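Form 7-S
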Amino acid sequence: MKAKKFSNTGKQIADFDLPSELFTSKVSSGAIYDAIKAENTNQRQGNHSTKDRGEVRGGGKKPWSQKGTGRARQGSSRAPHWVGGGIIHGPKKRDYSSALSRNIKRVAVVSILNKKATENKLNILEDVKMEKFSTKEVFSIFKNMGVTNGNFGFVVSGEDKVLKASSKNIPTLKFINSKRMVCKDLLYNNALIITESALKELVTQYKDYAK
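Output:
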């Protein structure tokens, strides 16, 4: 499998042979589905909550006498049918988190990488070294590559604070650390750009799950 390789200024150099240890054209749709589903559910806070009649403040005194008023008997002004009363069968706090095995997560990452390569949406970029903070300089690289018309992912090796800070003001860019891959960030974009050093880390980390 091949991908386009670009210099650290965004100029296309040549076609690049992707490592066969990682890129085998195999895509597991099931693993991708499970990984995306788990990431979505794990983002749900689950802190929605309502109060039932036992949790609403007040209502300790009987509103009126049991008999003699001509009105229906009432035991509490916090009953569900009263304004300001408790809620019947309302939502309560719950944990939506979903467990996902490490193997499935890594198979999903490999599958997404292969999917992007098959769709010609994966590009290799020479390592970018920033000496100072400059969003303009970083944006010019991706503009020269022609990927700024839509959302794109940028996979780098390690935590380069200068490069990360220079990239975060680009609204269509998703900065991704190769050691902490998120399947949603890899999948939902129009292009995926991987630096050379990040590609080497990915091969080392995920080659056993591409078989």
